[in-house]
Amino acid sequence: MTVQPGRRERKKAATRQKIADTAARLFQEHGYDAVGIRDVAAEADVAVTTLFSHFASKEALVFELDEDFEQRLVRAVTDRAPQEPLIPALRREIHALVRHCTADGAAPTWRMIDASPALRQYEASMRLRHAESLAKAITADFGSNSGSGSVSNPPRTTTTCRTIARFAIDAFSLAREEPDPQAAVDEIFVMIEAAWEAGPRRH
């Protein structure tokens, strides 16, 4: 049974969403560089300290789903069905993330990100962090460090797990820039699956 969040958690989530929505509106109306943290806090009617309790930086306001995306990627590994292969599970999640980030209304935000060196740098560091979290999940699942695994699916090396994680994260970035993002995901994952199958195994 799913446990519903309490009143305090709901209030905290609502405040966070209000701040994020306010920041998105101000950035679109006035430009990212023209809007400061204090402007967002004042418009959202919260203290600057409250804003920073939800978002560590101005850049984080733009990538407000950062932690959610990271958790979704990890859960694609940890929560998949016992007999489901890894690569199809990752492909399905990347498809979902690409759909979200190429939906109607997302283009202005990505144009803003592409035009800002600070936002591009933040996005790059975010991708690396997501890749490391995903790699840890894959490594744990395939027993690279513990020596677990099976005859049909022996443990993979840490390098193989990190490489596949990085490929999956890059697939998202590459696909969202293509004319047909979903087709691009499928094309990229053909190569990712081949790399996974060809990767070294520990026996």
From TrEMBL:
It comes from the Bacteria. It holds the Pfam family TetR_N. The keyword Transcription regulation applies. Keywords: DNA-binding, Transcription, Transcription regulation. Residues 36-55 bind DNA. Residues 13-73 form the HTH tetR-type domain. InterPro entries: Homeodomain-like_sf, HTH-type_TetR-like_transc_reg, HTH_TetR. The keyword Acyltransferase does not apply. This is Helix-turn-helix domain-containing protein.
